[in-house]
Backbone:
């Protein structure tokens, strides 16, 4: 991996590009971060990106900003986190400022409303891609617990209208419990 100014520049511009040309929120930008930082640049591992996605989803704030902080910090420490935050929030900030000046013209414009509706289809496709890319490794490794948790979480939210916060808390507690159990088992202590 590159060190110093070159790494900072690459991190800033990759994150800026992802933020500037991404519509659809945190899950979309996280999937594109995975493609850039895991698949293309090989700066972080697939497992780290999955961890970053989980942490950034459960932490307060925008998921895209949280993921950028984690990736930036992992790659270049505190300076990398600051650069990644700046690169992530600059494009939406500039767009919001520009749109706020012309809001009245945009609000009732049928063409703008049609474009935004069309973008929803693209966002849905990207979200499906994210879901498949996150689930596929677990299916290939035949890891039962993550598959069962994903299925039950989906069912709880979709069919039983459970609050997502409770689903996240239950999954977090199960994950911590499993991690403690595995740690104690490796250390040879009684379970």
Residues:
């Amino acid at each position: 991996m590159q060190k110093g100014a070159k790494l900072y520049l690459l991190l800033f511009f990759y994150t800026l590009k992802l933020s500037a040309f991404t519509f659809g929120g945190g899950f979309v930008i996280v999937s594109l971060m995975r493609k850039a930082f895991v698949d293309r640049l090989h700066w972080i591992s697939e497992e780290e990106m999955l961890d970053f996605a989980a942490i950034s989803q459960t932490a307060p704030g925008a998921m895209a900003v949280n993921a950028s902080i984690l990736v930036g910090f992992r790659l270049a420490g505190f300076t990398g986190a600051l650069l990644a935050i700046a690169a992530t929030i600059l494009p939406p900030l500039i767009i919001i400022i520009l749109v706020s000046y012309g809001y009245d013209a945009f609000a009732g414009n049928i063409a703008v409303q049609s474009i935004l509706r069309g973008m929803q289809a693209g966002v849905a496709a990207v979200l499906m891609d994210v879901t498949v890319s996150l689930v596929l490794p677990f299916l290939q490794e035949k890891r039962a617990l993550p598959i069962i948790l994903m299925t039950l979480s989906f069912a709880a939210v979709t069919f039983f209208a459970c609050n997502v916060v409770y689903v996240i808390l239950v999954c977090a507690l199960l994950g911590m419990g499993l991690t403690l159990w595995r740690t104690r088992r490796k250390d040879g202590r009684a379970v």
Notes: The longest helix spans residues 63-101. Residues 93 and 177 are 40 Å apart (CA to CA).
